[in-house]
Amino acid sequence: DIQMTQSPSSLSASVGDRVTITCRASQGIRNDLGWYQQKPGKAPKRLIYAASSLQSGVPSRFSGSGSGTEFTLTISSLQPEDFATYYCLQHYSYPYTFGQGTKLEIK
Amino acid sequence: EVQLVESGGGLGKPGGSLRLSCAASGFTFSSYSMNWVRQAPGKGLEWVSSISSSSSYIYYADSVKGRFTISRDNPKNSLYLQMNSLRAEDTAVYYCARDSWLDSWGQGTLVTVSS
């Protein structure tokens, strides 16, 4: 099974900050990775697909990069609505695996 | 607009059964693979099972293999998850999600396993 190691597990930041979340895969997954945002009591929402493609309707302050085993999600200037939990997902091979999640909190 | 609506959650007893459904609309259901993903209370996301568009390929997480069965009815635009031999650790919100890329998700249905 492919393990996805996501870091950090939590992060405190202020509105306007730039933040980066990382996911490392235990083996190469090409660019078969997505990033999801989840707010309390809500379903996850996809932000990024194919590691670096922005989902339609998602603000351009979100960006993704990486290929192979190392991936990053960057939020260029945090907005109040961005405080949530973020997950990466590899869909390169079964069983699909998620990162452990990063809870982004207001400082 | 893609819509996925889960139903069938509720209280199940250890060793018992529940059947979840996911009603799809707004896209050609028969052209997409589908998935179930769950989230235990206060925990992260866990992929459960996937089924290809024609049901030819089916995959399960080890944690549910032999107990859960995924299926679909393309003419009815519906996805199912038959959950047998329920355990306390199956307690979670269950989401259905579209495509191998998991691009769209339903709102989830809560399954609680308790005596």
Walk me through what this model shows.
The complex is a heterodimer of chains A (107) and B (115). Chain A has no helices and eleven strands. Chain A has 107 residues and is mainly β. In chain A, strands 2, 4, 5, 6, 9, 10 and 11 form a seven-stranded mixed beta sheet that branches. Chain A has a four-stranded antiparallel beta sheet with strand order 1-3-8-7, with no helix packed on it. In chain B, the strands form two sheets. Chain B has a six-stranded mixed beta sheet with strand order 2-10-9-4-5-6, with no helix packed on it. Chain B is globular. The mean pLDDT of chain B is 98. The interface between A and B is medium-sized, with 21 and 19 residues.
Task: Summarize the helices and strands and which ones pair or pack.
The complex is a heterodimer of chains A (107) and B (115).
Chain A: E1 4-7, E2 10-13, E3 19-25, E4 33-38, E5 45-49, E6 53-54, E7 62-67, E8 70-75, E9 85-90, E10 97-98, E11 102-106
Parallel strand pairs in A: 2-11
Antiparallel strand pairs in A: 1-3, 3-8, 4-5, 4-9, 5-6, 7-8, 9-10, 9-11
Chain B: E1 3-7, E2 10-12, E3 18-25, E4 34-39, E5 45-51, E6 58-60, E7 68-73, E8 78-83, E9 92-98, E10 109-113
Parallel strand pairs in B: 2-10
Antiparallel strand pairs in B: 1-3, 3-8, 4-5, 4-9, 5-6, 7-8, 9-10
